[in-house]
Write the structure tokens for this entry.
Amino acid sequence: MEDKSKIRLTNGVYMPLVGLGTSHSGGYSHRAVVYALKDVGYRLIDTAKRYGTESFIPQAIDESCVPREDIFVSTKLWPTDYGFESTKTAFKGSLNRLGVDYIDLFLIHWPEVSSKCSDKWGTLVETWRSIETLYDSGLCRAIGVSNYGIEEFEKLLPESSITPHINQIEFHPFHNPNDLKQYCDDNKIQIQGYSPLGEGYLVNEQIIKEMAYNHKRTAAQVLIRWSIQNSVPTIPKSTKENRVKENFNVFDFQLNDNEMSLLNGLHEGRKYIDSSKIKDKIDEQLPDGYKLDIHLNEMTNSSQNNRQQS
Ligand SMILES: NC(=O)c1ccc[n+]([C@@H]2O[C@H](COP(=O)([O-])OP(=O)(O)OC[C@H]3O[C@@H](n4cnc5c(N)ncnc54)[C@H](OP(=O)(O)O)[C@@H]3O)[C@@H](O)[C@H]2O)c1
């Protein structure tokens, strides 16, 4: 029987429709990740070298007691590692930090390179070729890109022997790029959505709140349900256990055709992830997990404070 909580990629690999994001922004909660796997039933973890959270995942998987092979582990390559050999080295680094011997999904994080690089497209193609060899040798179950638009695909596809299985992009009712979606559908590239809650801001949108009220659901659930009803898997993030559970409980209700077309008509190109700042981050060589470090320091300080007080 078909598992309605998963989607089949073109290479036959099944990917969960709802996964857990673990980006540095907003911090990492170990408890929330363990809870997601052990108690709620999440089977996809999205991370990236950039987030600085890869090395926390093995302990969470271990504590969850869920077998590794039941978990779809997805990570990404940051632009400072682009290039044929450096991609392989960075991939090994991710494998080691994640404590696994294969990655379920490995993505090129951004179609952007450092200003010092004189051949952007050559570098991106070379990087993709390197990822193809990782796939061919069985080290990744699926491979893809992130934040690619039609222009980037038009440069990449003629040069590639494997069409990316995934394009991970910002995807919510206010950023629902039909032309890109159609292009990906035509080329059998599965879109996976990130920031389905618009980093949390979209739960305050009136139209979403009204639909949630009518379904006796929450605004977050309406947003996530909308994505999966559009056949776009999604990876909401929360550091709070109650929200981790809430965000996964989306398989037992349905938005009707009228609601779907209302939400599908809201696209206005609104993005919460500012792509114009990515180049600066590459050039400035900001360390991986640069926002997370601050949060971890706060956590360390607060546990030190607690110890001093007690
Ligand atoms: N490929 C890329 O370039 C890229 C870019 C951005 C993100 N991503 C991936 O996508 C994941 C998700 O995106 P995101 O973290 O940017 O945004 P998001 O999932 O849309 O929103 C996360 C924010 O919403 C809050 N939140 C979560 N559940 C909620 C609920 N039920 N009700 C109200 N607020 C809620 C969270 O706060 P609390 O923690 O306080 O609950 C957090 O501040 C990331 O973690 C990352 O894995 C990928």
